[in-house]
Amino acid sequence: LVGSPELGNAIAIACSIIPITAFSSIQAGFYKRDLNFKPLFKARMIVMFIPFCITIPLALCLRNYWALIAGSIAHKIVYAFVLTINSKWKPSLRFSFLKTKEMTSFWLWTSAGRIITYMTNYIDLFLISSKFDQHLLGIYRTSMQTSTHIIALISSIVVPVLLPTYSKTQNDFKKLRNTILNVQKHLGILLLPIGLGIFLYSDLITNILLGGQWHEAAPIIGIWGLMHAFTLLLSRNYTNAFIAIGKPKIPVIVQAIYAAILIPAIILSADISFNCVYITRSFMRIWHIALNMLFIFITIRLSIFKTLRNLIPEFIGCLVFFIISTLLSLISESPYWQLISIIICAITYFSIIFLFKKEKIIIYQAIKHIKNLLKPLSVSK
């Protein structure tokens, strides 16, 4: 797949992570279902030291990829062990054919969805590695990861709780629709301006995070960051809802239709130019969003008009954000002025959405929650 047949043994050993993950995924599922994230947080804090204890020392000694593989395997083993010893449920040596039969349909469709998702997420990398040199492949991959990681600072807080949250209202579609809209409202307040900010200030972000020598990555970081924010808000949000109501077939169908258009589009764009590849890849996210919106309407009658109406304050704030940012860029393009411009745009954006009642309540609740979290620290001092 990637033109490196000599790495077969490395991949085979690295795949030992798969059965190890089975022990931690079940435990993690119990914790997430109960919205009990403290054990997960503690486990992740513990495995944070794995790179310092195993990966980095091995990298200094071996100076090859085996250090990364050993570190990854150790990470999964420790994570599974910590979650298991703290869980009320423990694995036992018994097997139920009845339970397996009940689960088979669900996990087959879910697994099929994962496989198709993997294909659609990485088909562009395979094509770029075969059509272009390693330099462009590195720029493309690093740019995508940079944008994704920035967005993940916000989405990683909310995404893990979406499935258990939606599952609690799986039998009441009216409550489920309201829950989805509420989640979109909370996420949209931050995701939309962050995505727009990445797009407008991609040069500054590239210089700060990657350095001036990565200037070719700036347009990719910008356009991918913008589209990734919209995808999380209007697409992945719905995928969790489909699974929560026991319809894993829908994400598979969506991914299959998406892949049927995406793969030919990427192949054709790769024959044109590298720039055409990342532009096509980014804007194909619109097709994915449209498919999810169509199926969420068919399934639980959540229309696109309700969704867009729900996010009108955020769209208005982003429009003002864009206009002010464009005007400020005419004054100067220096990094220091761009930082000042970001602060001005952020203040303007939150001032706009603060004019709307729901957004004002959400912001007040967020501030109150932060104060409650900081109280123990102030008391201890």
Overall description:
The protein has about 375 residues and is mostly helical. About 85% of the residues lie in helices and about 0% in strands. The protein contains 17 helices and no strands. The chain has helices at about 10-15, 15-35, 40-45, 50-60, 65-85, 95-130, 135-165, 175-200, 200-210, 220-245, 250-270, 275-285, 285-300, 305-310, 310-330, 335-355, 355-380. Helix 7 (about 135-165) packs antiparallel against helix 8 (about 175-200), helix 7 (about 135-165) packs parallel to helix 10 (about 220-245) and helix 15 packs antiparallel against helix 16. The chain is globular and about 65 Å long.
From the N-terminal CA to the C-terminal CA, the straight-line distance is 56 Å
| Helix run count | 17
Strand content: under 5%
Overall morphology: globular
Q: Helicity range of the residues?
A: over 70%
Mean pLDDT comes to 87
- Oligomer state equals single chain
Please tally the β strands and state the result.
Answer: 0
Please summarize the sheet with the most strands.
none
Which structural class do the helices and strands define? mainly alpha
What does the radius of gyration come to?
A: 23 Å
Order of helices and strands: HHHHHHHHHHHHHHHHH
Would you identify the regions where 5 or more consecutive residues have pLDDT less than 50? none
